[in-house]
Predict the 3D structure of the following.
Amino acid sequence: MNNFRLKLQQFGARLLSGIQHFMAGRYGMDKLNMAILWTGVIASLLSAMIRVQPLNLIFWGLSYVLMILSIFRILSRNTYKRYQENRKFLQFFDRIKDRQHRYFDCPKCRQMVRVPRGKGKIAITCPRCKEKFVKKT
Ligand SMILES: [Zn+2]
């Protein structure tokens, strides 16, 4: 019995080091992946609940696409690109939550410019390329 437990422990340790070796240099989990996974789980639940023909198939397909996408991102070796995706995703939610400001992209250089909300029409000067543009806040 003790021998069996020892074997099991050894197997567990080998499995763990194998996983660690496999995951070395790969991206792993982030908030964007959590969101993708949860959306996938919800889509899969919806596909099981909804009885309308084309709609449940769409949710079923969507749940598979999302889960494959999140596995791809976890195993990806292009960590810089994955990190940028996650950063953009978090930035997008920060923008939605921010009720004090409005965000615009500079028409010339695409730099994001933050201005206070509710000031009417204002002239904005891009901090990067000094391009001037008028926007309603
Ligand atoms: Zn600019």
Observations:
- The two ends are 73 Å apart (CA to CA).
- The chain has four helices and four strands.
- Residues 53-75 form the longest helix (23 residues).
- The longest strand covers residues 101-105.
